[in-house]
């Protein structure tokens, strides 16, 4: 989940981007220094409204469009009382939670679902500066599951090896890392794919709530096909109908 996640911080919570703010993106059309419009531009999970505006700008300037569109819901920690959920402790003779070390980078990267996009070197850089936790098997010190802070308050959604799932490791890691991120002065948030019901349920138990929808993809120039108009319009209409899911704490 590292990269260019674009969020608006309003005091101690994430806020929705307004239409007035999105309209100001028209200034980007005149930008030719920060952006090289003739080269592909990759954007990690970014507010869906921003991505739709960028798609329109890219199409106008260089006959390009967004490809490889992947959706992710941004869940933000908003209910501190729910973070104190009492969990069943890990069996003392089975596993233990420890801070991640650089020696764990390969195992972390092997478990990461987007390892084709993010390199092992990225995780080395993150772990040199940011904290993370792992659940280690006591029998052979094998890394069974991990979670790591990313930029600002961002958190990698925990990853667990298949043979260690359904043991409660994930929620233990998520709770421990969320508390640490808050202690470090950040607002914790995670990206959860819409189809990932297990992660959504886990983080909701700990006080996370959906703030907005985001999109990851690459803007590529000179490939726009007018026949794609209908599909793009349907995607954007679907995006605009996604209201913020807000629950009382």
UniProtKB/TrEMBL annotation:
Gene3D superfamilies noted in UniProt: 3.40.630.30
Pfam families: FR47
GO molecular function, one term: acyltransferase activity, transferring groups other than amino-acyl groups
Domain N-acetyltransferase: 95-227
Chain intervals for the UniProt region annotation (Disordered): 230-249
InterPro entries given in the database record: Acyl-CoA_N-acyltransferase (IPR053225), Acyl_CoA_acyltransferase (IPR016181), GCN5-like_dom (IPR013653), GNAT_dom (IPR000182)
Protein name: AAEL009818-PB
Organism: Aedes aegypti (Yellowfever mosquito)
């Amino acid at each position: 989940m590292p990269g260019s996640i674009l969020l608006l911080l309003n005091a101690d919570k994430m806020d929705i981007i307004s239409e007035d703010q999105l309209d100001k993106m028209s200034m980007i059309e005149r930008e030719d220094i920060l952006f090289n419009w003739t080269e592909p531009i990759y954007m990690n999970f970014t507010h869906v409204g921003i991505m739709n505006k960028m798609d329109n700008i890219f199409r106008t300037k260089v006959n390009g469009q967004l490809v490889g569109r992947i959706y992710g819901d941004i869940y933000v920690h908003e209910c501190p009382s729910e973070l104190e959920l009492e969990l069943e402790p890990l069996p003392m003779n089975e596993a233990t939670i420890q801070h991640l070390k650089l020696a764990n980078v390969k195992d972390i990267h092997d478990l990461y679902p987007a390892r084709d996009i993010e390199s092992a070197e990225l995780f080395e850089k993150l772990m040199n500066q940011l904290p993370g936790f792992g659940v280690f098997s006591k029998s052979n010190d094998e890394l069974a599951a991990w979670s790591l802070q990313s930029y600002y308050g961002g958190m990698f959604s925990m990853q667990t090896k298949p043979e260690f799932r359904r043991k409660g490791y994930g929620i233990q890691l998520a709770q421990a890392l969320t508390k640490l991120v808050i202690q470090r002065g950040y607002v914790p948030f995670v990206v959860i794919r819409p189809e990932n019901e297990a992660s959504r349920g886990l983080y909701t138990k700990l006080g996370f709530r959906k703030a907005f929808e985001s999109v990851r993809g690459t803007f590529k120039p000179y490939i726009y096909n007018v026949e794609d108009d209908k599909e793009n319009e349907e995607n954007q209409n679907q995006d605009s109908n996604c209201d913020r899911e807000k629950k009382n704490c």
